[in-house]
Amino acid sequence: MMLIMERLPWSIPSVLTDGDISLFRAEDRVFEAMLDGWRAQMLARGLTTDWIKSSASIVTRFQAFTNEYPWKWQAHDVDEYLAGLRSREKPVTLTTLRSYSSAIRIFCAYITDSRYGWVSYCEQAFGDIPSQICFEWNSPKHATDDAAPEGRRSFTRNELQTFFDTVDDLVDQEFAAGSKRWLPALRDSIAFKVCYAYGLRRRELTMLETVDFGPNPHVPAYKGFGCAEVRFAKGTSGSGPRRRTVLTSPEFDWVVELLGFWLSDDGRAKFPTADRTLSLWPSERAGRLDVRSFDRSFQSVRELAGLPEKLTMHSLRHSYVSHQIEAGYDPAFVQVGHAYASTTGLYTHVSNDFKHKTVQQMITRRTTSREP
């Protein structure tokens, strides 16, 4: 194929040209160069390498499905591809479907951006141009509460009390029997309560360390547990973890005494591995406890308590949100790190500083009113 064209922008790799600008297997080479350029753009955006690899793989599989190249893709190709994924004997989840659609949409946004030069290149090379093929009307909507698995909900207050009573009874029973299992049971009991008191995701709970708590200068009564620094909060797609600070709320101030006990010589320090790691939840042998261990423990306690299977460890986080709102907190300021209004209320129009200040004012007002 012979092409005569002006020098293209930097984003068109020089390897696509050779002497008088001829290409062998032009379509394949251009598609590969598009993917390489897109990978470089995603790296520049700070996305994780795992995310980049996964996204590029999705686009490659879509190209193989259509048997066409990006400059010939049309909207109905997306319809057929996503419909096929949902029509399998075991359909993909909405989350997976959304990730496929998102990857294709972002790739198309890259190759149709005039600043990268692919539109003019394809027009001169193939007489056709790439276009955006993913739109609101043929893509799964963003994750919202209605996309959550059916049955996911928060604990009722009675269920929550039953769950915590059961796990505390388990600690007492193991201790009275002289079993070594009493210490792991105590750790899990405190971990579940901390998860609830700060509205944490499972991984956020697992990754907590002893240094992740600090004072709230406006509430000195909370001492060194006025806030929790969540260092591994869920980030936006492909960005990796981010951080957020959760203030200790008056409705959960019992967690202050609980954490004080756990970080004393009578709590965490009793684990033989405690001095080998900063993890708030050391395992019995080495390192930190993992998410699966917490899940297994939660399921065991749930069965002992006779509670529904639909209640998962994540339900503790749902309960935190529900009970904060019931206590009078505006959904806009419940501190769970959500980015969308669909989960905790419409708050994307206010800054983080404003949200933090509002929560602080509420905490100060409530703690002051309790003083004699």
Round the Cα radius of gyration to an integer and report it: 26 Å
Q: What do we call the CATH topology of the largest domain?
A: hpI Integrase, Chain A
CATH architecture of the largest domain: Orthogonal Bundle
Low-confidence spans: 1-10, 144-148, 336-351
CATH class of the largest domain: Mainly Alpha
Q: Per DSSP, what share of the residues sits in E-state strands of 2 or more residues? A: under 5%
**Which series of helices and strands comes N to C?**
HHHHHHHHEEEHHHHH
Number of helices: 13
According to CATH, the homologous superfamily of the largest domain is Intergrase catalytic core
Question: Which class of secondary structure composition applies to the elements?
Answer: mainly alpha
The average pLDDT is: 81
Q: Classify the helix fraction into a percent range.
A: 40-55%
Shape: elongated
Read across the widest sheet, the strand sequence of neighbours is 1-2-3
Describe the largest sheet: 3 strands, antiparallel
> Distance between the terminal alpha carbons, to the nearest Å?
87 Å
Whole-number count of domains? 2
> What's the count of strands?
3
